[in-house]
């Protein structure tokens, strides 16, 4: 689901924010102690009560589908890495938690895909099991966890911070090898070399929102990049030594001249769970 947010209007919000986890309890009415204890018990009252009981409608059994709705909190969730390419989560999945990150999307050109295919042939020849990324983007936040009722205020905070931010242009041309903090995955990326000043200003805005919700801010000295391919495990040094220079030569000696990724930064996005929120820059 994609929800569009411009920097000047909030009317397009489609997700209603949930209330706080706890709400003040309602005052209960006083019990009518007089009616419960003062009536004498006689045969007439017993018959009257028996008659009322006979007229009560029997309760229907609760459907199984309704029962299932309340089992979430007690069920144990198990991460199955084989369902997503062998990747392991950086944090334990919990129901009601939404993995969230902010990014600029990159729509690949045909020439870009051709270069990528050539690069995959080279890495396969060196027995390095890289897989192409399913989508290409420039990350501007770490992946953080939002509770469902935080989503709308979180998105509103970002939107407010971006009110006057101007669109700009980025480009990348140098390959670089990265790994995640846990050293469980290795990435081949292309590092941004123009537009870094604007990206750093964006990070300042996004970090204010992260701090507001007590979430992790971005890296202190970030290497902005677009991930091209990845593999499970720490193959950082092996990839650097075996074929990084050979892969870079494919970029530098492209038939139409050195290949650059050109990214028009006009629309920032935030993905949380299965929803994507859009922020159009001025």
Number of distinct helices: 7
**Count of β-strands:** 11
pLDDT averaged over residues: 79
Distance separating the two termini: 24 Å
Helix content: 25-40%
N-to-C series of helices and strands: EHHHEHEEEHEEHEHEEE
Largest sheet: 6 strands, mixed
Radius of gyration, taken over Cα atoms and rounded to an integer in Å = 28 Å
Stretches where pLDDT falls below 50 for ≥5 residues? 6-54, 66-79
Classification by helices and strands: alpha+beta
Q: Roughly what fraction of the amino acids lie in strands?
A: 25-35%
**Principal-axes shape call:** globular
Topology overview:
Layout: E1 2-6, H1 33-37, H2 43-55, H3 64-68, E2 97-106, H4 110-125, E3 131-132, E4 136-139, E5 144-147, H5 151-161, E6 168-179, E7 185-194, H6 196-212, E8 225-232, H7 236-252, E9 261-265, E10 267-272, E11 275-280
Parallel strand pairs: 1-11
Antiparallel strand pairs: 2-4, 2-5, 2-10, 3-8, 6-7, 6-9, 7-8, 10-11
Protein model, in words:
- With 282 residues, the chain is of the alpha+beta class.
- The chain has 7 helices and 11 strands.
- It has helices spanning 33-37, 43-55, 64-68, 110-125, 151-161, 196-212, 236-252, and strands at residues 2-6, 97-106, 131-132, 136-139, 144-147, 168-179, 185-194, 225-232, 261-265, 267-272, 275-280.
- Strands 1, 2, 4, 5, 10 and 11 form a 6-stranded mixed sheet that branches. The protein has a 5-stranded antiparallel sheet with strand order 3-8-7-6-9, with helices on both faces.
- Strand 10 and strand 11 form a beta hairpin.
- Helix 5 packs antiparallel against helix 6.
- The radius of gyration is 28 Å and the shape is globular.
């Amino acid at each position: 689901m994609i929800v569009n947010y411009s920097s000047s209007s909030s009317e397009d919000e489609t997700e209603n924010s949930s209330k706080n986890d706890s709400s003040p309890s309602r005052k209960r009415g006083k019990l009518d102690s007089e009616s419960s204890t003062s009536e004498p018990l006689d045969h007439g009252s017993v018959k009257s009560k028996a008659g009322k009981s006979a007229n009560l409608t029997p309760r229907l059994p609760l459907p199984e589908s309704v029962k299932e709705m309340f089992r979430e909190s007690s069920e144990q969730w198990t991460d199955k890495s084989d369902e997503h390419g062998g990747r392991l989560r950086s944090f334990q999945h919990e129901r009601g938690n939404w993995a969230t990150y902010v990014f600029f999307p990159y729509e690949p050109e045909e020439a870009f895909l051709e270069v990528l295919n050539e690069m995959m042939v080279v890495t396969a020849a060196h027995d390095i099991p890289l897989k192409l990324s399913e989508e290409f983007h420039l990350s501007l936040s770490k992946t953080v966890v939002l509770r469902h009722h935080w989503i709308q205020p979180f998105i509103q905070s970002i939107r407010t911070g971006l009110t006057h931010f101007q669109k700009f242009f980025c480009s990348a041309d140098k390959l670089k090898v990265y790994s995640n903090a846990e050293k469980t995955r290795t990435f081949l990326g292309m590092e941004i070399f123009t537009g870094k000043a604007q990206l750093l200003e964006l990070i300042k805005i996004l970090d204010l929102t992260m701090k507001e919700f007590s979430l992790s801010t971005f890296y202190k000295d970030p290497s902005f990049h677009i991930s091209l391919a990845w593999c499970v495990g720490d193959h950082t040094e092996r990839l650097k030594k075996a074929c990084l220079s050979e892969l870079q030569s494919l970029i530098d000696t492209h038939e139409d001249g050195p290949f650059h990724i050109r990214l028009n930064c006009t629309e920032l996005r935030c993905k949380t769970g299965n929803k994507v929120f859009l922020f159009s820059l001025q």
